[in-house]
Each structure stands twice: as structure tokens, then as C-alpha cells.
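Pipeline run #58 for the internal structure catalog. This entry was flagged by the ingest filter as a single-chain record with no existing model, so it goes straight to prediction. Upstream metadata was stripped on purpose; only the residue string is passed forward. Reviewer on rotation: M.T. Logging verbosity set to normal.
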Amino acid sequence: MRTRKLTAGLTLAFVLGLLILDQAQSGPVNRFQQPAAIAWGSNESAGGAHCAALPQ
């Protein structure tokens, strides 16, 4: 049981360290310039997935 707690603690510390490193190195996010996560009814076509490669 001690090994499991040690492994879980080290894993959580590693993930938390990665999140802190990512936040420290990335710039601020302007949420008004981000693409829509779900574009239902916005008349925007898909662009980047396999469904965007329709035959001409």
C-alpha cells in the first residue's frame, strides 16, 4: 500500500509540474480570437477533420 501512495503522489506531482510549466511558458489566451468549440448552426464549414476532405 505504501508503494501505491508513493506512485500516486509522484504522478500527481509530475502532472501538476507539467501544468505549472505549461502555464509559465504560454502567453495569455484571448478567448475572443479562439475558434468555436462547437459550431452548430453558425454556418461555418468544417476545416481540419476528415469530414472536411469531401470529394469535389
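catalog note: The mean pLDDT is 80.
catalog note: The first helix runs from residue 2 to 25.
status: ready for reviewer M.T.
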